Fold this protein.
Amino acid sequence: MNDSLRFPDGFVWGTATAAHQVEGGNFRNDWWLWEQMPGHIRNNDSAAVACDWWHRAEEDIALAARLNMGAQRVSLEWSRIEPRPGEWDEEALARYRRMLESICAQGMQPLVCLFHFTLPQWVAGRGGWENTWTLDRFARFVDKVAGEYGDLVRWWLTINEPMVYTALGWVMGVWPPGKHRVFDAARVARNLVLAHAQAYHIVHRHRPDAMVSAAMHMASYVPHTPGARGDRIVAAARHWATNHLWLQATLDGVLRPPLGRFQRIGEAVDSHDYLGFQYYFTYPLAFAWRRPTNFFIQEMVDLVPGAAAMMGENRPEGLYTWARWFSRYGKPMVVTENGLLETVERQRPAYLLRALAALHRAIQEGADVRAYYHWSLVDNFEWAEGYAARFGLVHVDFATQQRTVKRSGWLYAEIARANAITPEMAADIDPALVGELFGSQGALSSSAGGDS
Ligand code: BGC
């Protein structure tokens, strides 16, 4: 009783960021154009400066090291590296090299994502991922950067959250290109399977021992009324469509409808060396006759105040559910993102303890989770939510670029140093957490979703 929750030796603690959200100055991608149109971004914010990483990344990387981080996730902005078709920007390539070298020099391991939601304008202008033409262009980009950085980077992610990207851009229309066209959405999701598969093999050609996966967004869908058959059916259907379909295609190579007509893509078969997943939200769903355009689904979500409709309930135990669920595939796992939106920090420290206790419980039960990346190191440009939605362990004053470590940041640093959650840490945040996390019942029971 009251023993610390120790993580396995060698467990990797990190934080995650993405190029457009932190760098500033990305004027050549599709998001930049989108941000220029009034009404697209809350408060009409834009990523013009963001966290100014193009000039200050090293300072934040050093801060991450001071917070005992062992790894840093970043992404490469394609529109900087290849501003015009076939034209490589040597300065941008050198800048990313310095950034990655500084991660390594701080004793951290880089995890590099190849596509995190932004496309060069010259690619988006030709239909982006709707167009198979993009596949060859992306392959060329991946070949270039894997060649450039393969000596520094062993851990890679191909595509970030393919189904979130597809749903928000082509179904809900709240991200570029702002469409409501499900058939195009299916084409985009299919092309992202192919993009992932080819990137997987290209990275391996440059670095045979590379560890490559995609960053899959796992949302927990639970029936609003567990006894209601309709609610159970819509929860299971949405789980299948948004969590399962794309992943399955990159495991057995089969493009099931609506991604395709059961064609088998050889390159896509078993195209993960580990499984990267990220978890934020749980959505209670109800069957609703009146909502045919939402696939007969009513989201019964207690929204986080001030958050966009897409965001669900924060149930930290979802990490347990997903780590257990992914165990069925017999591969190592990495939590590539997890975090909490709070404009002013209140709940994040307790959330962090609960989420990590849930992850610990899954590991105790045999889940082979090797690393956890918190989203995010610093507050940053939260897409359509702009700067109002803060996810950072470190507060950023966007007027002065001043950084202040939040309580959650110090707590996470302690956890990483100890490689454990201790009762003292929990008591310090909230004495009630000690019983909840260390009591005889063990950490958190599972009630968040999936079809486990
Ligand atoms: C994305 C990040 C985003 C975070 C918080 C993930 O969906 O990969 O870019 O900032 O969630 O919403």
